[in-house]
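ok trying again, last paste got cut off:
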Amino acid sequence: MTIEVCAYSLESCINAQAGGAGRIELCGGLGEGGTTPSAGLIELVREYVQIPLYVMIRPRGGDFVYDFFEEEIMRKDIRLAKKLGADGVVLGVLHPDGTVNVERTKEFVELAHPMKVTFHRAFDLTPDPLKALAAVIETGAERILTSGQKAAAPEALELLSQLSQKANGAIEIMAGAGVKPTNAAILKEAGVHALHFTAKAFRPGRQKFFPTGISMAGEIPDERSVMYSDLALVEAMVQTVAE
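nice, full thing came through this time. structure:
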């Protein structure tokens, strides 16, 4: 079973590889749930990391219905990820009614070739997961990242099992959201093909002085702490699924 680490920094990517992870999803925009990372970060991660690298293609936070200009940005970012040596990209496009935009997603999949494509958790905002499964298969995407349409994947074992069976080898089902070494075994038993997690940990930042009552983000992590993927958590996850 592949362990994919969702990473927001070069440090996290290095820890993911050192801990035995099989793949990295590289993101920016932590507070928005993941957006396209900078070109500099992609290039440097590719220099230091040899395991498969998938780059998030998401021009902003919010929903997954994009306008003409946002789609143009996504095309540019897909081409750039390919140029910088990524193995794949992570994206998802929906219609206003929440159904999968097969036409646009398929276009992006073809543009990404020979890179592979993961359809991300936009899947979890669709009204009918089985119809969405068939639609994503039609796009040519390689896998679906999903929490089983729950806040956390361990709460959706029945649907995750159903999706894995219905996929029938046509696409991979990767469970993400709330995934930890302590619940990896039950997710593995559900039949999913891969697990996705951040191996999240925090440490104090280097800056010592902060004025009171001011924050750039207004949420955790704020400027006083740094989030990273913890090597020990990655190792624990890899060991758990290997047992």
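cool. The first strand starts at residue 2 and ends at 7. Residues 66 and 72 are 10 Å apart (CA to CA).
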